[in-house]
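Quick one: structure for this chain?
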Amino acid sequence: MTAFPAGTILGYPRIGRRRELKKAVESFWAGRSDQAELERTAAELRATTRARLAELGLGRDDSSIPESFSFYDQVLDTAVTVGAIPTRFDDLRDEDGTIGLSAYFTVARGEGERAPLEMTKWFDSNYHYLVPEIGPETTFSLASEHLVQQVAEAAAAGYVTRPVIVGPVTLLALAKASDDAPEGFEPLSRLADVLPVYTELLAKLKAAGAQWVQLDEPALVSESLPVDTATLADAAARALAVLGGASERPQIFVAAPYAALGATLDVLAAAPVEAIGIDLVRGEVPAALPALEGKTLVGGVIDGHNIWRGDLDAAFAKLEALRDLGAAALSASTSTSLLHVPHDVDDETALDARLVSWLAFADQKVGQVVTLAQGLERGRDAIAAALEAASAALADRRDAPGVRDGAVRGHEVAETEFSRVSYAERESAQQALNLPALPLTTIGSFPQTGDIRRARAQFLRGELPAEDYDDFLRREIDQVVALQEELGLDVLVHGEPERNDMVQYFAEHLDGFAVTEHGWVQSYGSRATRPSILWGDVSRPAPITVSWASYAQSLSVKPVKGMLTGPVTILAWSFVRDDQPLGQTANQVALALRDEITDLEAAGIAIIQVDEPALRELLPLKAADQADYLDWSVRSFRLATGGAAAGTQIHTHLCYSEFGVVIDAIRALDADVTSIEAARSRMEVVADIARFGFDHGVGPGVYDIHSPRVPSVEEIEALLRRAVDELPLRQLWVNPDCGLKTRAYEETVQSLRNIVEATRRVREDVSAAV
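Got it. Here's what it folds into:
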């Protein structure tokens, strides 16, 4: 038996400091490289990560370095490991039943008529995971030994690492019933069947050299899953009794990140495992601890969700409080995996030095964990200088100019500013738009081509004059508008060629934000974003989108949507200040957007979309916190849109939002039209919409833009007919699931042509029926 390390992290960014994995994976997908080359790049990234973590102070031989790499997604990895792929992919298995890398990517992205796994948000983060499909027909087996191979790879290089895998309870709790499952089937009912595969995996990990294994069980902290907490706790007790009782296994560390563990801590304390991780950033130090019977308690005191340097003295005080409660052994850790933050703040040479002193990216957080571990081993005095330096940075941030600006509103707003006239009155006024039944539109962005990216890079480097860059962007808008006219769309967009990212673009034009150069964070698969840093009070010094929207509108008699990102999404997809309530910050952003809407209306823009794809994402995991969140998030949207005229049609867009979970909030947004992801789930959402009596306009998506598949006319037509069967025709819009930025033009144009043709067929039938 080896002791658990005094300091560790729950996971580390895996895309590479310069997105090396993204580039290698996309090269493989495009056929420019083979699997051997992709696997070499991945092995180099893993080796670089181990070396970097050891350089930062984590031990090479004490299991403090996690083995948390993934080619695409950790939930997909786990599903593939235990053989839980849908039957439509069964022919992709090798002769021995294993699932290789090409099959793995096909499950993730789809192929031909085979739809990929559905995608949704990972708890309350901006990371997306692939939803396993499990039914009575699912046959579990050890179908991939990638994690075993990585442990052996590390051992060959002189490292004893800690393999990380999603635990069986979370895997099944996050799964959806397969298409072949009977109504009412619960994937968690297959727990006893999957445990032998986990047991077999544990034995192989031990044989490969693993002394500890990390089972991630964040489902145990959530009150937002379809499975209730008592059922999850009981499942955890049963699962850990089996896994902990295995004769051949590493020592087990169960991590429960993203919120307070609550009463389920008692279940873990009684289970035959050796270490338990609790989130002390989102949760508090327990008032009392159950008898831990010699277990190590791993305190997640360094925020893995945000990039602030934080209060190191307070973090250490939490660890001391745990010790006072009588834990047998203690370890310092991050509250979550560090996959949610960029690699290294030292890469950001363009950021203001004072701002940098307030920040901690992944590498700096590793350093903080190492410091706290030294304090646990040697006492507070040994780390006094580091604690004082962190406290000084915190005080400097609090007093810095711009953090508080008395001229910025947001705290006190008149109640009248949160409402428009009634929906019935607006619907009547908006008849002047003269839209057909089943209006056709897109969500906003069109493909960001290599030419667009090159022109932007040249402009930012000073190699392309501003007037030449503007001319280039206008030519792009010309082409996008002409394409939409030729395709026959009804409400057009300008394509957003000027925008690098739907949040960063606004951050670059609002006071109170800073943007990074290398602060990439994985969103899903090979997709990475650079979250902006919201560090101070927010205001809009000048109009942001008006010139581009009005130029596009000048090219067509059809309405062109003004495109804005909503206040909740700007917060969700940024690293937000933690020194005031989120609702107050959201109102500041909302007021800036309100001014933008006023200017768009004055420029003749009659339809304005305020995207809120992250509305569901920030919903707190604990039920007691949800009402307050939904109140301020809805109010911030209504504050942004509350000044719009009755004849201005306000759209919003949500994705991966489990419509039924937040239906009351979506209704309360009071947008005239709401578009929502629906293609991957095959229009399941329309049943929720119909059941709840949602009466505003709605556009359930018919084209999954996160897959390279081109949906057929017949596939789209079937989705549309399901929507028409469930909902009144006057409500329905036709649109893709999301923006088209990440897709290539060839697949985009063909998909849109198919959407137009499918809509034509359904319109003809509807007209004939009337």
